[in-house]
Amino acid sequence: QMADPFLYDTGARSRYGCLGHEVQIEHIKAYVCRPSFFTDKAVIVVHDVFGWLFPDIRYIVDLIAGHGYITICPDFFKGTDPWKTTDHWADFADWLKHHDPTKVDKEADVVLKYLKEQCGAKKIGIVGFSWGGMAVHHLMLKNPQLTAGVSLYGIIRDSEERYNLLNPTFFIFGEKDHTISCDQIVLLEEKLKQYCKVAYKIKVYPGQVHGFAQLQPEDMKPDDKPYIEEARKDMIDWIKMFI
Asked: Which of 98, 149, 198, 211 lies 20 to 30 Å from 170 when distance is taken between CA atoms?
């Protein structure tokens, strides 16, 4: 049985008044926020197990849009139920079978097409959190249309081909994340050094648990705030370097 990886009380999050709007793209709903000026740069945000409606992920979308990117969070669960705070962790493995973060290629293609054809995007990056971090790791191995990626506490564990990244990828981890062991991070680093032919970066943030980087300011614990803000800045800086 998997331990509950979310050490923050996910039920007690602040509400969030979104700055963007929802759109329908083929079979997918998505939340989009655009900057106030024209840009041909875009970022896809991949939600965690709590789905595209979760306030924290919409806050992140708006935050990235504020840095000058057309930012979009599609519903990668395609209308099916996200994991809920009331669900039992004993059922998580079964839920995950029907929500595989490495089976996101079709949806990613639909969103890439929309960004290019409807929004005029020329350079597109991707960031993802937890479940979304695994999806980003997968997509950075498979989809050359994604110019750069940031995977936050998501790691593909059981595949030998997970190191041949196509474009620059940044892996962000929390030191106290008990869903991802230090050994796994060390292995990732060793293997990337050996196989990876593009720019990559791995950074571990002291004292941080799984899910730390998504929190809205009013939900942050004072001791964690500097690390959360640093991780956000690092994420944006990585995107800005390549997109």
From this structure: 98
The answer to whether position 183 is within a domain reads: yes
What lies within 8 Å, CB to CB, of 115 at 6+ separation is 42, 44, 70, 72, 121, 124
Q: In order along the chain (243 residues), what is the average pLDDT of each group of 10 residues?
A: 49 79 97 96 97 95 98 97 86 91 97 98 98 97 98 87 94 94 94 96 96 90 94 98 98
Q: Look at the block and give the residue holding tokens 């979308």.
A: 61
Q: In Å, how far are 113, 186, 200, 205 from 193, measured between CA atoms? A: 33, 11, 9, 20
Q: Burial code of 87-102, b = ≥16 C-beta within 10 A, e = fewer?
A: eeeeebeebeeebebe
SS3 84: coil
Classify residue 192 as exposed, middle or buried by CB count within 10 Å of its CB (0-12, 13-18, 19+).
buried
Q: Specify if 4 maps to a domain.
A: no
37: Cα separation from own chain's centroid: 25
**pTM exceeding the 0.90 threshold for the entire prediction:** yes
Task: Give the integer Cα–Cα distance in Å for 107 and 28.
Answer: 8
